[in-house]
Every structure is written in C-alpha cells, then in structure tokens.
Amino acid sequence: MSVNLIWAGVLLVSYYAVGLGLAGLCFLAIHYTAGATWSDALRRPAEALARALPFALVLLVMVLVARPQLYEWTNAGFGAAGGSELAFKRFWLARPFFLARAVAYAVIWAGFALAFRRVSRRQVAVSAAFLVVFSVTFTLASVDWIMSLEPHWYSTVFGVYNFAGLFLSGLAAIVLAALWLERQGPLRGVLTEEHLHDLGKLLFAFSTFWMYIWFSQYMLIWYTNIPEETTYFLRRLHGVWFGLFLLNVLLNWVVPFAVLLRRDTKRARTVLAVVAAVVLVGRALDLYLMIFPSVVG
Q: How far apart are the first and last CA of the chain?
C-alpha cells in the first residue's frame, strides 16, 4: 500500500503540472484567437507555464508505464464477471491501447507547445486548432488517467470538471508569476491595476464556473441515486474524507468568490496573490480527492 501511495502522489504532482502547462497554452490560444491586446504583458508567464509541459508529460507517462497497479482494471480478473456493459471498458482500457493514447496526447500537446514558440503570423490558426484538439484530447486523457482509477464509475461531465480546475489553477499561477515579475523588475511599470482587475475577474468567473460544474456533477448523481454512480461520492462523504470534501469547495469557490466579489479587492496585489495561492492549494486538494480515495479505499 505504501508504494501505491507514493506513486499516487507522483501521479497527482505530474497531472497537476501537466494541467498548469496546458492552462498556459489555453490562455495563449484563447487570447490569440480572440485578438485580445490587454493580455500582452501576461503572455510571458503563460508561455513559461507551457514550457514546463514536456517535462511534466514525461513524468506522467512514466507513472502510467511503471505503476499499472494503481489502476484496478490492470488486474487480470477485471470485468470477468461483468456483462456487456463492461465490454467497451475492457476494450478502451486494454493496456497497449491505453499507453498508446497517453503517448499520443503527450506528443500532440508538446507539439502545440513547440508550435506556439515558433510561429508568429500564424498564431491565430495554430491557436484555433489547439483549442479544438485540446477539448477532445484532454477530455479523453482525464477519463483515462483519473476517472479510470475507479473503472466502474463514470461521469459525463468529468472532462469539463477537470478543465474548470485546470484553467482556474492556471489563472492563479499566472497571477502569482505576474506579481513576482513585477516585484523583480521585468513587469515593473508594465503591470497595471487594469491588468490585475481583469485577472481578478477571470479568477472570480472561473472559480464560479468550477463550482457550477462541481454542483452539476454532484447534484445529478445524488438525485438519480444509481449505485454505480453514488459509490464515488459515498467514499468521499465519510470519515476524514468528509472534512476534505467540504474544504475543497471552500478553497476553490467560497474564498475566491467572497473575496473577489468587490472591485477593490481585484486590484489589490496582496489580496489577489493570497486568493491565487489559496486556489492553487485548492486544485491540489481537488486532485487529491480524485486520486487518493481510489487508492486508499
């Protein structure tokens, strides 16, 4: 069990880092596609996040290759007693196909990260292509790498939920990087209160979007009360997990919503930095609750 816990921790860290890198690419792609100019000063922190993506992907793929025991479906007897409802899962989670998809996602994302660094006039075309490809590949990757830790459970909004957490944490990282660069000198006199206000609005909006998707997933599963679906939350609503379950909502939505509701707090550097740090801790806790109850039980 202790070995599995270590590898689960590596999975959490690498998936977290991959998410930050992809969030940097998403931030760039959205702003290039929209033709936004207000974010020019913030593109370097986003590019820095994207540059870490290849290293994080290598670590994540290493986990998938080296520790298949994290995933219940790698057991030889998985689905042996199941009916036709498990037939597709057995096909989709066949280990060679699973690893091939992981490598494909990594190559595609790393290729886009490299393209963003090399293109100039074709930024809009590359950005639009990335957003389309990303929406499909990341949804599948989140199902493969995280949801399949509990192969009998499923959620149709799991990919969107993971995107919400990914982009929210990416915005928080960009906020902290921009404030640090301002303090160190490169963005001194460049980063204005208007930039901070816009970043604060984005952080506020996407924390609420995260909460909306979180509630949608929880409420629909609670309302329908199908055993195959409720087992996921039953694990997380008892014992020590229940406190962390509530803390997750507090860090990812209650704090940023309550603090950033006011206009002046969005422009206050210290306040914005504290909220961004809280959101990054919240993202780690969110991933912890996705991964560790599946491993620990």
A: 11
In a domain, 162, yes or no: yes
d(CA 130, CA 113): 9
In a domain, 265, yes or no: yes
**pTM here?**
0.93
> Is 82 within a domain?
no
**Left (φ > 0), alpha (ψ -120 to 50) or beta: where does 239 sit?**
left
**50-51-55 Cα angle (round to 5):** 110
pLDDT in tens, 12-46: 999 999 999 999 999 999 999 998 888 888 888 99
From CA 59, how far away is CA 64, in angstroms rounded?
9
In a domain, 291, yes or no: yes
Q: In this structure, what token pair is assigned to residue 2?
A: 């202790």
Domain that holds residue 93: 2-73+88-296
pLDDT band, very low/low/confident/very high, at 120 (cuts 50, 70, 90): low
Could you please report the per-residue DSSP string of 19-80?
HHHHHHHHHHHHHHHHT--TTGGGHHHHHHHHHTHHHHHHHHHHHHHH-GGGSGGGSTTTTT
| pLDDT of 84 | 65
CATH of the domain at 230: 1.20.1630
Number of structural domains (the chain) is 1
Cα angle: 199, vertex 200, 204; to 5 degrees? 120
174-195 tens-digit pLDDT: 999 999 999 998 888 899 999 9
Q: Are 259 and 271 in contact (CB under 8 A)?
A: yes
How many helices (H) and strands (E) the chain has is answered by 13, 0
